[in-house]
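Worked example 2:
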Amino acid sequence: MKQSRATIRYAKSLISISKEQNSLEISFNDMLLVSSICSSNKDFVNLLKTPIVKTDLKIKILNELLAKSISDLTLSFIILIAKKKREILLPEIAECFIALYKNNKNIKEVSVVTAKPLDDDLRKEVMSYIEKQSNSKIELKEIIDESLIGGAIIRMDDKQLDASISSKLKSLKNQFSENLYIQNY
């Protein structure tokens, strides 16, 4: 996700203020909620983007919508963003905040693609192996793709380990399709 300088600055400032007030975990949970609202409700995002709705009305709506769900610090931060007419950046600020928080806490997102769901023992084994290799906490995202036939594909940061049966079959197919016949020999 490409982020502007403004979204990074706002996210860093919320992290800084949250650390000062010892409410980083609360702000993280608040921003997770804001991010999920933005990703699941296009009308809310369209409200933030529209220039037709005045800032005062947007602030009132944000207050009504979020006052009971998030902390006062996060709510006042979001209202400040709206007063500065930067509410359009709220979804990106939330995503940036979450990414910065995870980076700060040394949490890595790992996706495991398998043909069938992992059982609990295998999930624990995979997580402990990756945690040992990366020296960080793991947030596991499981994806089911039946076209893999078996095995798994593990992705973390910019690394990928492909131990799927479908990739092995493709590799074999490519090896067999090479013409080993040498003409005029």
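Strands lie at 107-114, 137-144, 151-156, 159-164. The longest strand covers residues 107-114.
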